[in-house]
């Protein structure tokens, strides 16, 4: 395989026919993918697992950053609320929503998560060694770094899916 192929193609190499190599999930049409996302059984396992890896508030922070950068008002409002509910810094989250993704979140860890999420949301190729080193310097282990990548990348995809479905409606509890 050519070394300049996209990362998604590299992930597919070696997988069972019709599946994604790293997850063994079947490749689906966009309609099936929408149903899979809507059911979100994976989200309960992944986003709310606190036995290891990144904390819930920080996972929601990464999702909030991706949503804010993508302009998905609905998703940003939901994720900022969840981050606060999980013990996240309410003032930092509010500044992220008010000032944008360049806001100082007043924490080495949160700023490192923000920077990594911004890079991944813009394009996967913008994310690299400096981001990983900053996350590690802020105290994250490999599993927590992977959680930052997964939260940012997944919710970047989810925002783009949601934004194609129509006008967002911010839940009343977040207005």
Task: Describe this entry's structure for a reader.
- With 175 residues, the protein is an all-alpha fold.
- The chain folds into two domains: 7-39, no CATH class; 42-174, Up-down Bundle (AhpD-like).
- 61% of the residues lie in helices and 0% in strands.
- The protein is built from nine helices and no strands.
- It has helices spanning 7-12, 30-39, 41-47, 56-70, 73-85, 90-99, 108-122, 129-137, 142-163.
- Helix 7 (108-122) packs antiparallel against helix 8 (129-137).
- The longest helix is centred in the last third of the chain and has 22 residues, at 142-163.
- The protein is globular, with a radius of gyration of 16 Å.
- Helicity, as a percent range: 55-70%
How many strand segments? Answer: 0
Q: Measure the end-to-end span.
A: 49 Å
Instruction: Give the rounded overall mean pLDDT.
Output: 77
**Would you state the CATH class of the largest domain?**
Mainly Alpha
Low-confidence segments, given as residue ranges, are: 1-42
CATH architecture of the largest domain: Up-down Bundle
Structural class: mainly alpha
Instruction: Tell me what portion of residues adopts beta-strand conformation.
Output: under 5%
Q: What general outline do the C-alpha atoms trace?
A: globular
Which radius of gyration do the C-alpha atoms yield? 16 Å
**Number of separate domains:** 2
> How is the main sheet built?
none
Compute the number of helices.
9
In CATH terms, the superfamily of the largest domain is: AhpD-like
């Amino acid at each position: 395989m050519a070394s300049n192929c996209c990362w998604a193609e590299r992930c597919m190499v070696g997988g069972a026919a019709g599946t994604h190599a790293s997850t063994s999930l079947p490749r689906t049409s966009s309609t099936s993918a929408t149903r899979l996302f809507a059911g979100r059984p994976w989200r309960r396992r992944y986003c709310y697992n606190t036995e290891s890896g990144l904390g819930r508030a920080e996972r929601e922070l990464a999702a909030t950053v991706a949503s804010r950068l993508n302009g998905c008002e609905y998703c940003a409002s939901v994720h900022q609320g969840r981050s606060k509910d999980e013990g996240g810094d309410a003032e930092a989250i509010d500044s992220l929503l008010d000032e944008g993704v360049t806001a100082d979140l007043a924490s080495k860890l949160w700023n490192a998560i923000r920077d990594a999420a911004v890079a991944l949301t813009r394009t996967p190729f913008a994310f690299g060694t400096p981001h990983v080193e900053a996350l590690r310097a802020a105290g994250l282990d490999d599993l927590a770094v992977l959680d930052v990548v997964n939260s940012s990348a997944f919710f970047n995809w989810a925002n783009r899916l949601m934004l194609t479905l129509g006008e967002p409606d911010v839940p009343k509890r977040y207005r």
